[in-house]
Predict the structure.
Amino acid sequence: MMAVEQTKIRVLHIITRMIPGGADDNTLQTVLGLDKDCYMVDLIVGGQSDELMLRRVEFCRVIIIPELVRNPSPYNDLRAFIKIYRLIRHEKYHIVHTHTAKAGILGRLAAWLTHSPIIVHTLHGATFHRAISSREAALYRILERLAARITDKLVSVGDDLRRIYLSARVGRPEQYVTIRSGFEISRFRLSDAELALRRRKIRRELGISENAWIIGSASRLEPRKGQFYFLQAAKRLLSDYPELVFIIAGDGPSAKELRTLAQSLRIADKVHFLGHRKDIEDVMSAMDVFVLSSLWEGLPQVLVQAAALGRPIVSFDAEGAKEIVHGGENGFVVPRGDENALTESLAYLTANPKRAKQMGLLGRRFIGEEYDKEIMVRRIDKLYRELLARPETIFSRRNIKKLVQHSDEHNAESVNTIQAQHRQFDTSGLN
């Protein structure tokens, strides 16, 4: 068994927490998608991770570090760093690939100090976004600049995000590669007949008329997703269009607060809170317009899904929005936090339903295969191999080829070996 493990490319992914969301799903799809005949994959997650998300992880070792938490905490951060450092030093990974802010800083530093051959970091969103104080943003910019110096490759989920980081002098242009977050895009590429069928199904479930005009949103319910603005716009729209219906799909820490807000605005009877839905493509099919009110993002995957479904979009100018929404063609991008502009754009689409439908159908043309999860994983695999084959890396082209060849020779044994790895790792030995 040990001989089989030594013939594989050993990869460690580190993410601050695994919860329902774009960055987390991106990481999960990568971990699940990498060829297990060639790779041995471990995954470090923080203690605030969602148990249901972790249950989806298969064929790799899950290592939970309780001290790895999202908010700054000197004591927890130091203990998490020590555990990550000791694990990397012990396991001698060929590649350490980090995700999100906290894991990105601690993980890259630990990998550098243990002389890991390859260090990769994925940018899922700007850590120095405009929704935080200027002092915090300045600190994060400094940390990202320092971390970039010890990073072999920076993977950006969108071109907009790459431009933001380069303008902040984080890394060099040649360090960056854009690999878009992939998902099961075939779920959202539905025929008109199938869309109509699913639209009717969800509307019947919710008791909404076939002729009602539905404006909807789908995201995790938390302050940065800006559902507050969505509800405020709904209140204003209802004064002119009292027959409108609103849908909010998703769950999160702001769920109770948002329901209370809808009641205080006296629109609770017009807003359907659906909670977390596994059939999000069906729910979005029931909408006539899709809204993204996020204050910051990376490349909003939900916008790709809405465009693939042929839905016109109104979005705040979050990072990556303009890569999906071409203003005036398949929707509108308005200044973030601008409640007036959000309301006006939604009013225009409501008053012009034929134009809205045309815009939505046009949006399908902007969604290519680069958003497919298999394409994403293939590009990450290609990146890994290119990095390992570089002359300055401890592996030569010959050695990396030998790793893959040996993996193929041990196919049957490899499957048994990998299946044995699907367990939670005890971190007590890392203290």
In short: The mean pLDDT is 89. The radius of gyration is 23 Å. The first strand starts at residue 9 and ends at 15. Residues 2-182+372-420 form a domain with the Rossmann fold fold (CATH 3.40.50.2000).
